Amino acid sequence: MASVHNPFTGEVIASVCTVEARAVGTVLQRARAGRRVAGALSRAARASILERTAHLIERRAESFAHLIVSEAGKTIVQARKEVARAVNTLALSAAEARRNAGEVVPFDAYEGSEKRQGWFTREPLGIIAAITPFNDPLNLVAHKLGPAIAGGNAVILKPSALTPLSSLRLVDTLVEAGLPEEIVTVVNGGADIGAAIVSAADVRMVSFTGGFATGEAISRTAGLKKLAMDLGGNAPVIVMDDADLDAAVDSCVSGAFWAAGQNCIGTQRILIDRKVYESFRDAFVARTKLLRVGDPSDEHTDVGPMITPEAARATRAEVDAAVAQGAVLLCGNHVSGSLYTPTVLEDVPATCTIWQEEAFAPVVVLQPFDSFEDAVEQANAIDYSLHAGIFTSRLDRALTAARLLQAGGVMINDSSDYRFDAMPFGGFKYGSMGREGVRFAFEEMTQPKVVCVNHISDVVQ
Predict the structure, then answer these.
(1) Bridge partners of 344?
(2) Which residues contact 410 (CB under 8 A, 6 or more apart)?
(3) Share of the chain above pLDDT 70, in %
(4) Are 187 and 14 in contact (CB under 8 A)?
(5) Which residue ranges does the record assign to the Aldehyde dehydrogenase domain (predicted)?
(6) Residue 264 catalytic?
């Protein structure tokens, strides 16, 4: 058994059964049974189950939101938005089950194939291992289960040990909506059972959201199978001198400190034209200081706790190290239990961890630039990237930035943390593998099968 703690109070809110690596055979046996059952479900049945699940969650939205608050520490306002997104994710998955069946292949368009016609279908991969993080304990699980079920797969789900309760409730709701229970096998446990699942030949795809070190370990262990990974980012946002500064400040404050900064596309490095740097900096710091930090169940709280007190203390240590190397602390860097105050830095050396790596914390770095080219170069200087943003009133500059910025998504006049659940989502450069977003995940989780008919005789009987 493993205990689940409330990040704000530290109290134990539940215990879940864990699975040891030696039980992987039992897990795989159940998943194989789930694969057979899933393959027998019609597209209509899959879609109906996902639609009913979405409706059930929508009816119980407040209960789901409070569960997210209690296990993940998101504010109640943010948790409600996550629930609404999960409903949409499942509805999109249902639509994909009905829609994305394949297409006709024009064989007769090619010389020598005039007597052939055919099509391809999209068939399930079989068993998919889904490994999810703590920061979106409902919607990120829905992003893996929804497309996988829509595609006719069975899933072995390993949720974060810190936040397993929302995923368990989601799976229970899927079963209540009619999903045969063997289609999704939930495994709570440590790295040993995770490695055993990932390395199993029966598992045809691993869909992982989490850190780079774990992603690298999975890639070494997995063997010959599909990998889809969201390994985090260190998102830059460029603010040009012609931008609407008030809008940019508000958007970037939200982008930096949403979910206590525990957000893979959260704004971390804000690059500001030197001509407006001081105005932006002063407004940004003033707006940050207005954020209310505290009890996530309070409707007026803006920033809740980090996932653990250890995470908060580690963040403070990284900021202290940056300050020791010459960075200037403009506000924040206070720890109380798992609460960490929103923190703004400037003059951060490019060699600092807080500049080079994902903070995954409510920390943001402000940096002036002298030219657009300089801003793009700084934005692209990191080895991995998910999203980037730019604020400008010039369309030509916005489109040039969209072309030059090395990121999986470029948000124009928006902070980096905007995401719509139907759009393709994933990273650029190092560690980029696959895409989420319902349609794109569905296609990752299925495989084409071609059917070709050769009309041997032209004679009509």
Answers:
(1) 331, 364
(2) 387, 388, 389, 390, 401, 402
(3) 98
(4) no
(5) 3-451
(6) yes
Task: Check pLDDT > 80 for residue 456.
Answer: no
Which amino acid is it at 346? E
Cβ–Cβ under 8 Å, residues 52 and 177: yes
Identity of residue 62: E
Question: What pLDDT sits at residue 17?
Answer: 95
In degrees and rounded to multiples of 5, residue 41 shows phi and psi of -75, 130
Model pTM above 0.85:
yes
Q: Which of 230, 273, 414, 421 is catalytic?
A: 230
Half-sphere exposure of 145 (CA within 13 A, CB side): 34
Q: Are 208 and 60 in contact (CB under 8 A)?
A: no
Contact of 325 with 317, CB cutoff 8 Å:
no
Q: What is the pLDDT of residues 59-85, one digit of tens each?
A: 999 999 999 999 999 999 999 999 999
Q: Which residues contact 80 (CB under 8 A, 6 or more apart)?
A: 61, 62, 65
Catalytic residue among 108, 172, 246, 264: 264
Q: Which among 123, 124, 356, 386 is positioned nearest to 229, based on CA atoms?
A: 386
Average pLDDT score over residue span 193-199? 97
Q: List phi, psi (to 5°) of 179.
A: -70, 125
CB-side exposure of 144: number of CA atoms within 13 Å? Answer: 33
pLDDT at 458 over 80: no
Q: Tell me the two tokens of residue 271.
A: 């690059």
252 is catalytic: no
33 band by pLDDT with thresholds 50, 70 and 90? very high
Q: How do beta strands 446-454 and 116-124 pair?
A: antiparallel
DSSP 371-408: SHHHHHHHHTTSSEESEEEEE-S-HHHHHHHHHHS-SS
The mean pLDDT of 418-425, rounded to a whole number, is: 93
Query: How do the domains of the chain map onto residue ranges?
Result: 2-232+427-451, 235-412
Quick: pLDDT tens for 365-404.
Answer: 999 999 999 999 999 999 888 999 999 999 999 999 999 9
Question: What would the DSSP string read from start to end of 205-217?
Answer: EEEEES-HHHHHH
- Torsion sign, CA atoms 253, 255, 257, 259: positive
Query: Is residue 459 predicted with pLDDT exceeding 50?
Result: no
Q: Of 174, 108, 110, 179, whose CA–CA distance to 141 is shortest?
A: 174
Buried/exposed code over 147-156 (b: 16+ C-beta within 10 A; e: otherwise): bbbbbbbbbb
CB of 435 within 8 A of CB of 425?
yes
For residue 185, what are the β-bridge partners?
156
List the beta bridge partners of residue 122.
448
Angle among Cα 242, 354, 6 to the nearest 5 degrees reads: 105
